[in-house]
């Protein structure tokens, strides 16, 4: 698949890495493996046929992985999980990246085989140092992203986390907020719990009434795990954070997070709140990513 021709003199660089000396259990030769340190921004690949080493930057690998996810997992935000990672590296290592001159494939996350007899290394026949050493020049791993991946439309970005902040009315001035915070401190934990339970009930009620419209567009929306209480700030005495999880046939579409500021007299009325919630669900059924609509 890869169409990049291998140059006779690949560019090579020296890196700071941890060095491990491996003793081959079969032919007793000694050879060296290098591993990036904790803060390194590159990955090391070893040929599964001869143990040759290549290095690729995290940025380059990330660019390739993003393209892979754009095509195969358009509704995943971020980097996916273990399964997606394994699928990506299988495709990347077997099709996108250059082949070794020995016809082997460069693999990440694997120790190099013995360069002499090609035996697999055994971990306890190795010893490493905790110091970062300068490696001999290591060539860069060449790869190409096929055009059908490179030109695929990108997914919406995950960073920063999608957040909707539901602010009922203008924020308080500091003096009023302080007064209300003092007032809120007097409030019993029961009354806060009652407030949160009321909010949860309102959300469930709206979700139930939207179920059939959501089902028509193959969506499910559920309330996320228990609300998180937020610390008071200078202008907000007290808040609880909730989330709505939007799924299309088991695939996560988006998570809409919102905070309810419970600020005594300034707390949202139920009418304001349910109006906002209905509007949000309306946008969701229209196929809009609500969390993307917020600047
Ligand atoms: Zn090789
Ligand atoms: Zn050997």
Write the topology of this structure.
Blueprint: E1 12-13, E2 16-23, E3 30-35, E4 42-47, E5 53-57, H1 58-72, H2 82-96, E6 106-108, E7 126-134, E8 138-139, H3 147-150, E9 164-166, H4 174-186, H5 189-216, E10 219-223, E11 228-230, E12 239-248, E13 251-261, H6 270-285, H7 290-293
Parallel strand pairs: 9-13
Antiparallel strand pairs: 1-8, 2-3, 2-7, 4-5, 4-6, 10-12, 11-12, 12-13
Helix pairs in contact: 1-2, 5-6
Number of domain modules: 2
User: Which regions have little confidence, pLDDT < 50, spanning 5+ residues?
Assistant: 1-8, 158-170
Number of strands: 13
The portion of residues assigned to helices is 25-40%
Order of helices and strands: EEEEEHHEEEHEHHEEEEHH
Shape: elongated
Task: Briefly say what this structure is.
With 295 residues, this protein is an alpha+beta fold. The chain is 32% helix and 25% strand. One zinc ion (ZN) binds next to loops.
Could you describe the 3D structure shown?
This protein starts with 11 loop residues before the first strand and ends with a helix. The radius of gyration is 27 Å and the shape is elongated. It folds into two domains: 2-150, no CATH class; 174-293, no CATH class. The chain has helices at 58-72, 82-96, 147-150, 174-186, 189-216, 270-285, 290-293; strands at residues 12-13, 16-23, 30-35, 42-47, 53-57, 106-108, 126-134, 138-139, 164-166, 219-223, 228-230, 239-248, 251-261. Strands 9, 10, 11, 12 and 13 form a five-stranded mixed β-sheet that branches. α1 crosses α2 (82-96) and α5 packs parallel to α6 (270-285). The longest helix has 28 residues, at 189-216. With 295 residues, the protein is α+β, with helices and mostly antiparallel strands. Residues 1-8 and 158-170 have low confidence and may be disordered. The structure holds zinc ion (2 copies). One zinc ion is lined by residues 47, 49-50, 52, 100, 102, 104.
């Amino acid at each position: 698949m890869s169409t990049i021709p291998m140059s006779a003199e690949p560019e090579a660089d020296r890196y700071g890495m941890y060095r491990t000396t491996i003793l081959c259990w079969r032919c007793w030769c000694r050879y060296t493996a290098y591993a990036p340190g904790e803060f390194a921004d590159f990955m090391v690949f070893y040929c599964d046929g001869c143990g040759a080493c290549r290095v690729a930057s995290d940025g380059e690998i990330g660019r390739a992985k993003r393209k892979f996810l754009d095509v195969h997992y358009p509704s995943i935000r971020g980097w996916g999980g273990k399964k997606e990672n394994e699928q990506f590296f299988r495709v990347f290592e077997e099709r996108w990246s250059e082949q070794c001159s020995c016809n082997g494939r460069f693999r990440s996350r694997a120790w190099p085989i013995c360069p002499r007899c090609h035996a697999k290394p055994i971990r306890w026949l190795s010893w490493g140092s905790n110091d970062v050493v300068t490696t001999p020049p290591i060539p860069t791993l060449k790869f190409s992203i096929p055009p059908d991946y490179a030109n695929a439309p990108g997914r919406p970005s995950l960073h920063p986390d999608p957040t909707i902040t539901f602010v009922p009315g203008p924020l308080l001035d500091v003096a009023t907020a302080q007064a209300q915070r003092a007032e809120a401190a007097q409030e019993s934990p029961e009354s806060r719990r009652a407030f949160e339970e009321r909010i949860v009930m309102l959300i469930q009620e709206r979700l139930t009434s939207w179920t059939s419209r959501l089902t028509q567009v193959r969506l499910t929306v559920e309330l996320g795990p228990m609300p998180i209480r937020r610390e008071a700030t200078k202008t907000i005495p007290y808040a609880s954070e909730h989330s709505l999880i939007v799924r299309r046939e088991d695939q996560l579409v988006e998570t809409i997070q919102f905070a309810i500021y419970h600020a005594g007299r300034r707390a949202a009325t139920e009418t304001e709140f349910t109006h906002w919630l209905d509007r949000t669900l309306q946008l969701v059924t229209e196929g809009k990513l609500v969390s993307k609509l917020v600047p």
